[in-house]
Structure formats: C-alpha cells, structure tokens
C-alpha cells in the first residue's frame, strides 16, 4: 500500500501552509484535494478567457509574513505588493480612504471631522496595544481551559503578565474588544459617521454580525494583527501576492514537492481509516487506500468529523460537538470581467486606496438593517457590497487595459425565508447587485463582458465548505481561542483531536479568521512538537 | 477641492515654501508634521555661525496652533495643564505641559493669553480631539487654526538690530515671555519673544511672504541668514530641550508604555502645581512626586569630530540608555545628543556611547566617553 509520513486532506491555504511547514521539517507529505485547482476557498478562477480572479473570496490570499516565516517563499519566487486598504463610499461627495501614510491618513479623516484626524492616532495606538497583547496567543496552540474568572480569561488571552503593568482604563479596553460591538468602540474615538461606517464596513466583509452586534468589535483588530501592521502610522497595508492565490499556491506546492512530497488534485477523500481510535490512512473516491502516520484535515470541523468518518467509530461527544458547531453562510459572490476600469463617482482614479478595494455598505444604520434582514432570511434588495479589483494590484490577471472585479455580497441568507433559492431569485439578486454597482460606477453595465454569481450553497458544492461560511465557523467568543473548534482538552489545543495522530488545520481552528492561514502553520508546529515529545520519551 | 486630497500630496508646502526655496543652495528638504521644510539652506557651518553670532530667519509654519476661547477657557485650560495658568496675564505666554490621567505627557507647548477669554496653544503634535474631549462641560471652544497663519522665527544676537532696521521697534522692545499682536506694515501679526533673542512671528497666511521679504531685506547689513530645520534642531539639542515625537512619544500615540514620559523624567523643571485641586493626572503625579524617577532625559556631549553614528549609551559593559537626537556642533567639534538614561547611571560619570566610525568604506566600532552636560536655564 502507498505510504507517506503525513497526509493533508485539502489544498486550501491552511492545508498547504501546514504541508509546507511539515515538508520543511523533513516529512514526506501528500496533499490531496478533490478539486482541480488548489487554494480552497481562496482559490482563483478563470472568469472569461484571459480574466482570472478570486473565485469565492473577496481578495484571495492575503499574506501575513510570520505565518510563512522559515519557508523561504521569497527564494521560491513569491513577490508581494503592499497596498492601501480600501475606500468606504457612501456617495460621490461622501467617501473616505484608508491610507498607509500617517499624515495622509490623519488629513483624510480630518477632511470629514477635524478631530478625527488626531483621533486616528489614539485608535491606532489602542489597536496596536491590543494586537501586541493577543499576538502571543496567536502564535501557537491556544492556552488550555480549566480556570475560571476574569483573571484566568485574561491569562488565556495571553496578556497575564501585562495586566498589572497596564493602567486600569486600558485593561478595561482589552476585555471590551472581545465583548463590545463595533459601533460602541468606534463611538469612543470618532465623530464622523462616514469614518465610522468606513472602518466598520472594512471589518464586516463576510461577517454574520452587524456593527451593533455584541462581540463584533474584535473584527476591528484584524488588520492590526498581521505582522508589520505598525510599520506605518496610517492604516495597516494589505500584503497581496503578485499573481494572487495561484502564485502563493505554486510556491507552497513547490516547497512540498522539493522535499519529496506531492500535491495530488482531483483526489477526493471519502473516509479516514480508524483502528482503536488511531488513524491509519485514507480511502479515496476511486477506491484507493493510502496509509500515513499523521493525517491532517483542512476541511472545516463539521465536514471533517461528520463527513470523513463512520460515526459509530467516533466518541459520541465528538459527533455531538461537530453537530453543535455553528457555521452560517452569509455571502454571495459576483465575478465580473470588465472591458476597462470603471469610473467610481466622486473618487479620483489616482486614489491609491482603490487597490485595496471599495466598500458600498452604507452607514452604520444601513449595515445594521442589512444584517437584521439577513437574520430574517430576506434576500437583500439593496445589497451591501465589498468590491475588489485584483487586476489593479496585478494587471497580468486581465488582458491589457481590462479588469476583473470581485464582489462579495454581504448578508445574503443561506436559504431565503420563502423557500430555497431558485434561478429567478438568483437573477433578482444579481440584478440588484448590478444596479447598485451601476449607480456608483455609471456606465458599468456596458463594460461587463462576462459575469457569474455564486450563492452560499453553490460555494459549498464547489469547495466543500459547510454552508459556504467563509469564517469556517462563527467567530464569537464561545467558538474562539481555546474554544475553537471545541475544547478537546488535549495538548496542542484545538489542533490535536481525541483521535490519535489526527489533526485539524482549517480556519475552523484557532485563530480562525483573526489571521488567515495561521491555523495551518500552528497545526504543523503542534504536530512537530508532539513528534519531538514522542521521540524524547 | 479634489486638488488637495491628502493622498495626492503626502507632504504639503508651507506658505513660505517658494521664498525659502529661493534661499536654498542645497535643495535639502525634510518632513515635519506633514510639511516639507528646509533641512539645510547653506552649509551647516555658515548656518550655525549665523545663529550663534549674527541673526537667522527660519520657517516654523508646521507647528500646530489651537485657538481656545470661551467664558470658561481659563478654568478649562487649568484643568488640562500641570502648571497654574490663572496667573498668566493677557499678552503673556509660558511653557505648559499636559498629561493624561496616568500622569504621562500628552503634549507640551506654549500657551499664550490673547485676551481675557482667549488663548493660543502651540504644540508639536496634534491634540484637537483630546482638547475637545477634555473640555466637555466647559463653556469653551477649541479649534485648529494652524492653516490660518504661517510662522517665522528670527533669532540670534543681532535679532534686535534687524528689527530696528526693519522699523519694528515695538517688537524689539518686547520683553521675553510676552505675546502680542502688532500691526506691522499694516498687517496684524502675533509676535512672541522667547528668552535668548528668539522672536516668533505668526502673520496671516497671505502676509507671510511680504513679512519674510521685508525682514530678509532689513537684515542684509547684520548678515541675516535663512536657516533650515537641521540647524534649529542642533540649537534645540544644544539647549537640552527634548522634542515630543523624537526624544519621547506622546501618550496618545505611543504603542509601548516604555516610550512615554512623565514630567519628572524631563530635564529641568516642569511646573507641576499641586496647589490646584483638580487637573488631569494630578493623583498619578502626586504619587510620582514622592518617588524618584527611574530614568532621566539628559543632554550628552561626545568629544570627537570623526564621521560617526551612535545610539546606545553604556556604563561599563551594560546598556543604560539610548540617544534619541544627535547633532554635530561644528563650532566645538563635538557631537551633542539628547538621551534617555537610567537615573542611577547618571550620577557618577563613566558613561560611554557605542559608536560606528566610518572612513571611506571601512567601518569599525569604538566606545567613546560621553559627558552629561549641565543645562542652561530652561527656555
Ligand atoms: C469575507 C471573507 C473574505 C476572505 N478573504 C480572504 C482573503 O482575502 N485572504 C485569505 O487568505 N483568506 C480569506 N478568507 C478566508 C479564506 O476564505 C479561507 O478561509 C482560508 O483561505 C483558509 O481556508 P482553509 O485552508 O482552512 O480551507 P478551504 O479553503 O476551505 O480548503 C479546504 C480544501 O479542501 C478540499 N476538500 C473538500 N472536501 C474534500 C475531500 N473530501 N477530499 C479532498 N479534498 C477536499 C476543498 O476542495 C478545499 O480546497 C476570507 C474569509 C472571509 C470570511
């Protein structure tokens, strides 16, 4: 029988990142994926001949340097571009931008409210302080549960040693970020409704919460968690791979193959073979069996447990935990191939923040309304959009002068209240999105050469992602840190499972959407640490 | 309006930019608070000589200016600053420092009393949202008036002679510590006189160029020299004055708590008046007043004229501090620095700096002795 040191099921970014780290440590790794193109939910797609863009996600891969540290991606050929993080648009005279230069960012916000320029410094300071405090807990397996009370909670979030050193008022803010709403936190700093809507909109792409939902505030922290976020005094820039997810995938696959491993596409795993609660190998759809000492799943938690095993072989509470794990789809996706760069009403073409995308999500009240309607499973009539043009960052993704537009439609129900999605309902949604885009970018309709729409369940069919939930499990405190996906209570936190030699590495594990692909790196670290312990014993 | 969108020009030009550019032999520009200003306009030696022995003119427009006015302006400001400003008379100004509730410096600057209920605050960093948040409940309004005026600094031993030649006698006769609005050539100009023959002029934006030209013209005989920020920085370091943003960070912007400072860590005396029943940071400062600060900001001198750089301050083998501002003083052939040093290490001498010395392509390390310099009286 074919045998490998480790098998990674799923060539999503977490799976590939885990595989590359394992390969660098000397393991022979086999990566299996049922699709023809690697990258999972961050994968790219040919939208029309010559036009390539992120298929299901807004931007595809975003690079956090520390996640890939030690892999040698630069030597493997990866090149990245740092871009300003986008524009929030409420009207031709009502838009603002995230800018990397501190003086420019302050002046930009001061354009809308004089004191918001200087408020930016305080906001940035507090976000970076919080990021410093949580960062240690993002690096490796999350601390273990077992203690109660606030102090223990603080300790688990990784800032115990600092609790005494920080002034009281700051400590309060540290807990607030995990409990409060986006709106509450933004109100403490900014006065301009536009600035608040802009920062909230950026934080809410793909979210299942609204700006006034409790426990939403941590989303504001995300851009500040990436390594190097403090490099500018303005907004943290986005680091995007030149060539998109495909370029990153190629480098990671090269590292796996360079170490004697293999990436095998169109290879669907149907079963993980268990004996005495220890995994032995996998069974492919074509009937082939492959053995390995370690098996890692990049599928979401629900699909891994409920889809890859015979339930009767599993501990009952594991099946129950997977059943209870909350996953909710909240986004549809439109991909457009455009004959030229659209003109955005009121926004000059040379605004550098455009490279980071455009948010058409309205003010805080509209965002809350859109979220409330999603809760009631209403298909949005005035859709809330996150827009990104990958061909601005890398013109090679479209023919010369032409462009690709990636549109994430936020707060779209998985199943409408009046019954399942039909072609008619889908067409209605597409029409509403195009109408909104046309209003912001006059003349857009004439330059659309190809378009496609993907609903949550369609994304699930294509990627295997339960409910098309881009976060791979709701990011609320009960499903974060040591609780993500569930407190297994084993060393290695939520990466190791009660099944020996079986690990989880997807976004369903810590730190989830806090840092894309960090879970993959952490899983590899947990596996290597456990192998070391065993060798030592 | 889209012409001046912030992303178009990360750095703006002051109203005096073209005037200053005309004086530049070096085309050397530096950034200050989002503005481009001259680094050096001439050789360092020429500028430094003029500053210490003749007279100099400099563009100081990038400082932030706030207008604070209202029935309760004095009460509100007294709540914000550490010193007692109720004694500040109309037409006078003085140094102020303001802290957050933890006793950490949020800003420093000069406060001028323009009228019974009107003040101007000059600072290095933006503090508008902080001013507004802290004036809630007071009958007072704070606004940023930086864009309304331009700043010109006339300094040096012959500054008075230049003013006499310019026909600005009322300004020449101004006492140090006074701030008054004068009619100069039919233009309303706010004038501040510091100790040590330093005059600041704050004309309205459109009046800046005529005033600059008039002063340059009047100073010809006295050898008036336009200078840039690098020489002004040298003078500041020579006087031992730390600058927020360079030698320590403001409490509103520092990410690490290690880089903010309390008034007790500053050189010289920062006025903290516990006679005032309430002001920001009072309780925290009260606790600090009875302890001795663990570190101090000090002025250092390194007697060496070679091409060298340094940052780390040592005592024996141990690092005890960091230099945050460094400048070479051509007139004495020494490097002058502002440094933060552990208080215990300041006492008995024996400090060194770890230097990197360059000669053509060769670079090597040497530890050179560093002296703590006694400071002249503040401001
Ligand atoms: C709004 C939003 C935007 C996002 N944008 C970004 C972004 O810009 N950049 C970014 O890095 N991340 C982004 N993400 C996160 C991103 O979409 C993914 O979650 C991330 O790439 C990690 O995915 P993964 O590797 O854990 O799993 P997946 O990407 O889901 O990978 C799982 C893989 O397993 C394969 N598979 C499924 N079933 C089987 C089977 N039975 N046998 C074999 N293979 C199988 C699938 O084909 C797939 O390739 C975003 C998330 C949200 C919510």
Q: Estimate the strand proportion of chain B.
A: 35-45%
Helix percent band of chain B: 10-25%
* Hetero compounds: flavin-adenine dinucleotide
CATH superfamily of the domain at 2-36 and 265-325 and 472-536 in chain A: FAD/NAD(P)-binding domain
What is the domain total for the residues of chain B? 3
Largest interface: A-B, 36 and 25 residues
CATH class of the domain at 2-36 and 265-325 and 472-536 in chain A: Alpha Beta
Structural class of chain A: alpha/beta
The CATH topology of the largest domain in chain B is given as: Gyrase A, domain 2
Q: Mind telling me the C-alpha Rg of chain B?
A: 21 Å
Overall geometry of chain B comes to: globular
Any low-confidence stretches of chain B, pLDDT <50, length ≥5?
none
CATH architecture of the domain at 2-36 and 265-325 and 472-536 in chain A: 3-Layer(bba) Sandwich
- If strands are numbered along the chain, what order do they take across the biggest sheet of chain B? 11-12-13-10-4-14
Sheet having the most strands of chain A = 7 strands, mixed
The percentage of residues in β strands of chain A lies in 15-25%
Shape of chain A: globular
Based on helices, strands and strand pairing, what is the structural class of chain B? alpha+beta
Major sheet details of chain B: 6 strands, mixed
Question: Care to describe what's here?
Answer:
The complex is a heterodimer of chains A (537) and B (379). Chain A has 537 residues and is an alpha/beta fold. Among the domains of chain A are: 2-36 and 265-325 and 472-536, FAD/NAD(P)-binding domain (3-Layer(bba) Sandwich), CATH 3.50.50; 101-236, no CATH class. Chain A has 18 helices and 18 strands. In chain A, strands 1, 2, 9, 10, 11, 12 and 18 form a seven-stranded mixed β-sheet that branches. In chain A, strands 7-6-14-15-16-13-17 form a seven-stranded mixed β-sheet, with helices on both faces. In chain A, strand 3 and strand 4 form a beta hairpin. In chain A, helix 2 (102-110) packs across helix 3. The longest helix of chain A is centred in the first third of the chain and has 24 residues, at 116-139. Chain A is globular, with a radius of gyration of 23 Å. Chain A starts with a strand and ends with a helix. The model of chain A is unreliable at 141-156 and 158-164 (pLDDT under 50). With 379 residues, chain B is an alpha+beta fold. Chain B has three domains: 12-61 and 149-227, 2-Layer Sandwich (Gyrase A, domain 2); 64-147, Aminomethyltransferase beta-barrel domains (Alpha-Beta Plaits); 294-379, Beta Barrel (Elongation Factor Tu (Ef-tu), domain 3). Chain B is 20% helix and 35% strand. Chain B contains ten helices and 20 strands. Chain B has a six-stranded mixed β-sheet with strand order 11-12-13-10-4-14, sandwiched between helices. Chain B has a six-stranded antiparallel β-barrel with strand order 15-18-17-16-19-20. The mean pLDDT of chain B is 93. The complex binds flavin-adenine dinucleotide. Flavin-adenine dinucleotide binds next to helix 1 of chain A.
């Amino acid at each position: 029988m074919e045998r490998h040191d480790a098998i990674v099921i799923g060539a999503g970014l977490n799976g590939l990142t885990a595989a590359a780290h394992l390969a660098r440590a000397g393991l022979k790794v086999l990566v299996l994926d049922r699709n023809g193109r690697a990258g999972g939910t961050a994968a790219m797609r040919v939208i029309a001949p010559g036009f390539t863009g992120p298929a299901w996600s807004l931007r595809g891969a975003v690079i956090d340097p520390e996640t890939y540290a030690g892999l040698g991606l630069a030597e493997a050929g990866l090149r990245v571009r740092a871009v300003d993080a986008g524009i929030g648009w409420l009207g031709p005279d009502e838009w603002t931008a995230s800018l990397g230069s501190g003086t420019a960012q302050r002046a930009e916000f001061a354009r809308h409210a004089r004191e918001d320029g200087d408020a930016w410094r305080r906001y940035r300071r507090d976000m970076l302080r919080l990021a410093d405090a949580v960062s240690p807990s993002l690096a490796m397996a999350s601390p273990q549960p077992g203690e109660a009370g606030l102090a223990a909670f603080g300790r688990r979030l990784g800032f115990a040693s600092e609790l005494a050193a920080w002034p009281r008022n700051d400590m309060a803010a540290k807990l607030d970020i995990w409990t409060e709403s986006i709106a509450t936190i933004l109100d403490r700093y900014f006065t301009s409704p536009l600035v608040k809507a802009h920062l909230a909109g950026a934080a809410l792409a793909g979210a299942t919460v609204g700006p006034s939902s409790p426990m939403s505030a941590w989303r504001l922290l995300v851009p500040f968690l990436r390594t190097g976020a403090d490099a500018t005094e303005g907004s943290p820039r986005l680091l995007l791979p030149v060539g998109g997810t495909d370029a990153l995938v190629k480098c990671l696959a090269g590292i796996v193959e360079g170490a004697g491993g293999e990436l095998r596409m169109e290879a669907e795993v149907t079963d993980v073979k268990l004996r005495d609660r220890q995994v032995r190998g996998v069974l492919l759809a074509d009937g082939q069996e492959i053995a390995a000492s370690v098996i890692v799943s990049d599928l979401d938690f629900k699909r891994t447990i409920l889809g890859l095993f015979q339930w009767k072989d599993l501990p009952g509470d594991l099946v129950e935990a997977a059943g209870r794990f909350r996953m909710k789809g909240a986004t549809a996706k439109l991909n457009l191939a455009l004959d030229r760069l659209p003109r955005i009403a009121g926004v000059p073409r040379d605004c550098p923040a455009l490279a980071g995308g455009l948010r058409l999500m309205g003010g805080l009240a509209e965002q809350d309304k859109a979220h409330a309607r999603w809760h009631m499973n209403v298909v949005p009539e005035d859709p809330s959009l996150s827009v990104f043009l990958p061909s601005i960052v890398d013109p090679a993704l479209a023919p010369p002068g032409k462009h690709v537009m990636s549109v994430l439609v936020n707060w779209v129900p998985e199943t409408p209240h009046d019954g399942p999605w039909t072609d008619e309902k889908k067409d209605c949604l597409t029409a509403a999105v195009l109408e909104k885009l046309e209003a912001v970018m006059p003349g857009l309709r004439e330059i659309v050469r190809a378009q496609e729409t993907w609903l949550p369940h369609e994304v699930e069919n294509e990627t295997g992602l339960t409910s098309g939930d881009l976060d791979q499990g709701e990011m609320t405190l009960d499903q974060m840190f040591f609780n993500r996906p569930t407190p297994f209570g084993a060393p290695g936190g939520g990466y190791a499972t009660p099944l020996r030699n079986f690990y989880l590495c997807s976004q369903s594990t810590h730190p989830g959407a806090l840092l894309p692909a960090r879970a993959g790196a952490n899983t590899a670290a947990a596996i290597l640490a456990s192998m070391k312990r065993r060798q030592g014993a | 309006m889209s012409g001046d969108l912030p992303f178009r020009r990360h750095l703006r030009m002051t109203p005096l930019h073209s005037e200053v550019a005309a004086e530049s032999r070096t085309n050397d520009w530096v950034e200050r608070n989002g503005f481009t200003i001259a680094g050096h306009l001439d050789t360092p030696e020429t500028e430094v000589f003029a500053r210490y022995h003749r007279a100099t003119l400099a563009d100081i427009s990038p400082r932030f200016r706030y207008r604070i006015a209202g029935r309760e302006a004095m009460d509100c400001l007294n709540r914000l600053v550490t010193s007692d400003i109720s004694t500040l008379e109309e037409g006078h100004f003085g140094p102020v420092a303001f802290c957050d509730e933890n006793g950490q410096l949020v800003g420093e600057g000069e406060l001028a009393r323009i009228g019974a209920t009107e003040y101007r605050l000059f600072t290095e960093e933006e503090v508008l949202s902080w001013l507004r948040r802290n004036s809630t409940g007071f009958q007072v309004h704070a606004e940023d008036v930086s864009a309304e005026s331009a700043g010109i600094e006339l300094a040096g031993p012959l500054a008075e002679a230049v003013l006499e030649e310019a026909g600005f006698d009322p300004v020449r006769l101004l006492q140090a510590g006074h701030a008054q609005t004068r009619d100069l050539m039919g233009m309303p100009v706010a004038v501040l006189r510091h100790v040590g023959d330093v005059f600041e002029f704050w004309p309205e934006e459109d009046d800046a160029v005529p005033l600059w030209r008039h002063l340059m013209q009047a100073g010809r005989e006295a050898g008036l020299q336009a200078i840039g920020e690098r020489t002004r920085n040298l003078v500041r370091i020579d006087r031992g004055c730390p600058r927020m943003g360079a030698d320590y960070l403001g409490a509103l912007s520092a990410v690490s708590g290690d880089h903010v400072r309390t008034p007790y860590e500053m050189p010289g005396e920062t006025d903290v008046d516990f006679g005032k029943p309430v002001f920001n940071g009072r309780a925290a400062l009260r606790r600090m007043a009875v302890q001795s600060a663990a570190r101090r900001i000090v002025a250092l001198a390194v007697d060496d004229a070679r091409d060298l750089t340094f940052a780390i301050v040592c005592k024996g083998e141990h690092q005890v501090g960091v230099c945050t501002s460094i400048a070479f003083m051509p007139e004495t052939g020494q490097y002058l620095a502002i440094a933060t040093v552990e208080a215990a290490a300041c006492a008995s001498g024996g400090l060194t700096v770890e230097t990197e010395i360059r000669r053509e392509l060769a670079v090597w390390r040497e530890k050179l002795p560093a002296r703590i310099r006694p400071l002249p009286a503040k401001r």
